[in-house]
Amino acid sequence: MTQDLVSALFGDPFAVVNTTGLVAFALVGSAKAIREEFDLFGVVVVGLATAFVGGVTRDLLVNRVPLALQSPVEIGLGLLGVGLAVVLSLRLRAPDEHTLIVVSDAVGLGAFATTGAIVASDVGTSAFGVVAIATVNAVGGGAFADILLDRSPFILFDDFYASCAVLGGCSYWLVAGAGVIDGGAALACATVTVAVRLVAVTRDWQVPTVGDLRNTDE
Amino acid sequence: MTQDLVSALFGDPFAVVNTTGLVAFALVGSAKAIREEFDLFGVVVVGLATAFVGGVTRDLLVNRVPLALQSPVEIGLGLLGVGLAVVLSLRLRAPDEHTLIVVSDAVGLGAFATTGAIVASDVGTSAFGVVAIATVNAVGGGAFADILLDRSPFILFDDFYASCAVLGGCSYWLVAGAGVIDGGAALACATVTVAVRLVAVTRDWQVPTVGDLRNTDE
Amino acid sequence: MTQDLVSALFGDPFAVVNTTGLVAFALVGSAKAIREEFDLFGVVVVGLATAFVGGVTRDLLVNRVPLALQSPVEIGLGLLGVGLAVVLSLRLRAPDEHTLIVVSDAVGLGAFATTGAIVASDVGTSAFGVVAIATVNAVGGGAFADILLDRSPFILFDDFYASCAVLGGCSYWLVAGAGVIDGGAALACATVTVAVRLVAVTRDWQVPTVGDLRNTDE
Fold first, then answer.
1. C62 CB neighbour count, 10 Å cutoff
2. Could you tell me if B37 lies within 8 Å of chain A, comparing CB atoms?
3. Chain C, 176-215: which have a CB under 8 Å from a chain A CB?
4. What tens digit of pLDDT does each residue of A103-158 get?
5. Could you list the pLDDT tens digit for every one of the 218 residues in chain B?
6. Which of C36, C72, C147 is opposite residue A126, by nearest beta carbon?
7. For all residues of chain A together, what is the average pLDDT?
8. Is the pLDDT of residue C48 over 60?
């Protein structure tokens, strides 16, 4: 039983990044809800929503009963992330800005973009569908959490975040098209998403606005 | 025909609570939209959304065409609730705070949590799935209405409301597991949800925030 | 290939209105995001959401994998609308208020309401289902875009907009019930929606609020 659990959580490289991502996403979401002074029920909901809404949306789009409702292990990981956020928030002001969490969040972004791309190409969507579902899987949870917190999804006007998943989804599609090796597309998607995200955080990249373009024009 | 309708609305105890709940939920939602000075179209949409979005989300999660789109009777009950809200709002300032409506709303919460739990266990989700779908079915409409009204869902930071449905969902799962009698799980879920809600309203229970925990710590 | 594309876009009257609608909806949505100073990623997301979320919601409600994820041509039209909004916003303050765009938007409203009504009656929903899905298909994208922009959907308190789709959906159902000629219901739905919308814009129609009714009462 314990052995099964260990193998489900860390049995292969993909399980490791997925496990890391679920905990990190739940932690980041709950920490935001704690700062908004939501009650504990709200903190749990926002944390689990951040971790799972991306995958649930993906499953709805491809017409499957969401996996998150069927797997107790994944929910346990989400609750672990929520618990960590609560404990850390009693000591730190913003546990979600700690370097370890920022890196884990980038790993989660890569894991979720990859799962999305794999599921989308399994059901035979267009290239746009692969990129769109990879992106929704990766950032849907965070965007939905922001709507629950009554603000615009941060991914739409701030930071270089969702764009990493878009680039990861495009890599998946290009490598899958080239058809080199089994698993090559998934590896490319995860690597590109995580690498671009880490560079974007380090160098503080921003996506330009139309206002920026207008100023360049002058 | 009239007889069929009467039996659909009040034929068994469950039909009675479901009927009460639909009217009460639609009334509560419309009253909120009226206070925000939405136009009549908006009032109808927010009222119907409060009554039906929980059930529609449940149906989407288990991959069914939503029942609400197939049953004219249920829509009629929703519109009745909206009509009552409009008529009462011409006379009262907050018809949704009347004791009769608060009690009906608690009855609706119990009815919808129970429907959610039944549907979830029919499709074979995990224990978490049963509790999650019961809760979404019960509070999804109210939460979505708050998003339409451009505020955070009240269930996330205020009041002891969604927690009643969580406890109801847990009861369902425990009693179903014990497997005593047919219908026992449904009865337990509805009773626990309604009873806890009524106690919570009377005693003004609140779920604590992490800030409360921090203060206790000191 | 070019010939196929031309025929997909303009091959029959319905394709022409659908093409016009997709471009207009994407343009209107992106222009709103540009005014809120979203970054370019956010502008693309809000534009595509405005054009496609109505149809995706329709497909989810009737349990289909969304067409938008399978058709590269439709996405191309959405991106064309986004591109137009960006280019026009460098010159004009509010390209979405230009008469040409307002008329195209009305045409899109009619096209999307009609598609929704056709799909709903194909899967055999109730009369309410036909009207509800026609309306969601027509206005769901704009409403979702407003939620992304952190405001209440404008259709709920302002303007005579969604009501046009409701009237169109009712016409569809009435004409389909009468069963006169093939395609008559679709034609009625599209014509009624577009005509009512153009009259509503010209005469500045508003749906009354309960406050208005209360004042009339006195």
1. 19
2. no
3. none
4. 988 999 999 999 999 999 888 888 999 999 999 999 999 999 999 999 889 888 77
5. 566 666 666 666 667 778 888 999 999 999 999 988 899 999 999 999 999 999 999 999 988 888 888 888 889 999 999 999 999 888 887 777 888 888 888 999 999 999 999 999 888 888 899 999 999 999 999 999 999 999 889 888 777 899 999 999 999 999 988 876 667 899 999 999 999 999 999 988 888 888 887 776 55
6. C72
7. 87
8. yes
Scan for tokens 């920490």, then name that residue.
A31
pLDDT at A215: 73
Residues of B in contact with A147 (CB under 8 A): 147
Instruction: For residue A34, list chain B residues with Cβ-Cβ distance below 8 A.
Output: 209-210
The answer to whether A125 contacts chain C (CB < 8 Å) is yes
**Cβ–Cβ contact A123 with C under 8 A:** yes
Chain B residue with minimum CA distance to C132: B69
Q: Quote the pLDDT of residue C57.
A: 93
Q: Which of residues 126-165 of B touch C (CB under 8 A)?
A: 147-150
Taking the CA of residue A10 and the nearest CA in chain C, the distance in Å comes to 32
Min Cα separation C2/chain A (Å): 19
Chain C CB within 8 Å of residue B66 CB: yes
Contact B69 C125 (CB under 8 A): yes
SS (H, E, C) chain C: CHHHHHHHHHCCHHHHHHHHHHHHHHHHHHHHHHHCCCEHHHHHHHHHHHHHHHHHHHHHHCCCCCHHHCCHHHHHHHHHHHHHHHHHHCCCCCHHHCHHHHHHHHHHHHHHHHHHHHHHHHCCCCHHHHHHHHHHHHHHHHHHHHHHCCCCCHHHCCCCCHHHHHHHHHHHHHHHHHCCCCCHHHHHHHHHHHHHHHHHHHHCCCCCEHHHHHHHHC
C45 in contact with chain A, both atoms CB, cutoff 8 A: yes
User: Using the beta-carbon criterion (under 8 Å), do B86 and C207 form an inter-chain contact?
Assistant: no
CA atoms of B161 and B172, how far apart (whole Å): 17
Cβ distance C63 to B63 less than 8 Å, yes or no, reads yes
Question: 3-state class of A62 per DSSP?
Answer: coil
- Mind listing the pLDDT tens digit for each residue in C138-190? 999 999 999 999 988 988 887 789 999 999 999 999 998 887 666 789 999 99
Q: Among candidates A122, A77, A123, which has minimal Cα distance to A104? A: A77
- The enclosing H or E element of B21 equals helix B13-35
CB C146 within 8 A of CB C154: yes
Q: Do C209 and B40 touch (CB under 8 A)?
A: yes
For residues B90 and C4, which has the higher predicted lDDT (pLDDT)?
A: B90
How far is the C-alpha of B190 from the C-alpha of B203, rounded, in Å? Answer: 20
Probe site for chain C from B40, B69, B151, B152 (most C CB atoms < 10 A): B69
Interface confidence, given as ipTM, is 0.82
Contact in structure between A155 and A161 (CB atoms under 8 Å)? yes
- Of the candidates B28, B29, B27, B23, the one whose C-alpha atom is nearest the C-alpha of residue B147 is B29
Q: What integer pLDDT is reported at residue A28 of this predicted model?
A: 92
A40: tokens are 């504990």
